[in-house]
Amino acid sequence: MESTNNLEKFQTIIDADTKIEPKDWMPEDYRKHLIRQISQHAHSEVIGMQPEGNWITRAPSLRAKLILLAKIQDEAGHGLYLYSACETLGISREELIDQLHTGKAKYSSIFNYAAITWADIGAIGWLVDGAAIVNQISLQRTSYGPYSRAMIRICKEESFHQRQGYEIMGKLALGTPEQKEMAQDALNRWWWPSLMMFGPHDSDSPHSGKAMTWRIKRESNDVLRQRFIDKTVQQAEVIGLKIPDDKLKWNEAKGVYEHGEINWEEFNQVINGNGPLNKIRLANHISAHENGAWVREAANAYAAKQKKEVLVA
Ligand code: 3HC
Questions:
Q1: Which residue, by CA, sits nearest to atom 39 of ligand 1?
Q2: In this model, does residue 67 exceed pLDDT 90?
Q3: Which of 78, 88, 257, 280 is most buried, judged by most C-beta within 10 A?
Q4: Is the CB of 40 under 6 A from ligand 1?
Q5: Ligand 1 near 120 CB (within 6 A)
Q6: What mean pLDDT value characterizes the chain?
């Protein structure tokens, strides 16, 4: 049982915007909340490599291939930063991967959709990384030190990810009629799933209350989603693409775009494992993890040998 005194002291530290570090006292629920969110964030980064990885051999130019390779390598690194931040909370990498493989831990719904044309790679960079940037800039101010520092590092690379995606979409949208049609088709398929990345409405979010009290989240799901919409609608207009929402309307008084309702039935299906590609994404990850076991064993054997030599020396 955590003493009231400890809990009050902890909240005073949070309210003073002081970072919580791994060795600080923290409520067990705070620690569990962070493990849940940071691990799912890490899983998202790694699973997110799959839709883009499928296009490395089909990139339309050497430049496009180089950019895509660099982005995918960045995502792997983001996953490793976040797994390392999560491990500071007292959970092992093996446990984290097991939670992913057994479905105990989620990853972002967006990565369960197929990237079927090159324009999808543009839409992923522009919309998915664009949404991730809005969320992650806010998370730079999260109360847990290792997570905050990982976000600061990751955000530096995300803007390159979003810009390269927007460049692909702009080139296609301003290209031949067939290219413009391909870009509009990708926008039509990725727009609504990108809005789902921000989570359910605040009123339907079981975790947001605690997340805001503990300053894990600094802004709510709906606030961040609206910020992404307001920014992205203008970007679509610049390249002559139409947002697939016939209820989209600028509200001058509020200074925001009003928009249609998300398909929450689809959202719930996808986050509960019944999306278009959930099973394939997870099977690919399990297979890659199993096929890579020998690398982990070799690295661990080498590390053990090094440690023994140091002890003997
Ligand atoms: N996909 C999958 N699950 C989602 C989800 C989504 N888009 N949105 C919400 N959920 C889940 C939550 O995990 C929670 O389920 P759980 O209890 O089993 O964990 C449930 O739905 C209720 O949602 P809440 O809003 O109450 O949950 P949170 O307070 O955790 O908020 C979140 C959800 C906004 C996604 C928050 O977890 C978050 O900010 N996570 C960190 C950011 C992140 O994960 N981004 C994913 C993309 S990473 C990426 O895009 C890489 C880029 O480089 C391409």
A1: 135
A2: yes
A3: 78
A4: yes
A5: no
A6: 97
pLDDT digits (tens, 9 = 90+) for 207-228: 999 999 999 999 999 999 999 9
199 in contact with ligand 1, CB cutoff 6 A: yes
pLDDT tens digits along 176-191: 999 999 999 999 999 9
pLDDT tens digits for 125-179? Answer: 999 999 999 999 999 999 999 999 999 999 999 999 999 999 999 999 999 999 9
Distance 85 CA to ligand 1 centre (A): 17
Does the beta carbon of 52 sit less than 6 angstroms from any atom of ligand 1?
no
Q: Model pTM greater than 0.85?
A: yes
Task: List, as one string, the DSSP characters of 97-149.
Answer: HHHHHTTSS---GGGGS---SHHHHHHIIIIIIHHHHHHHHHHTT-SBHHHHH
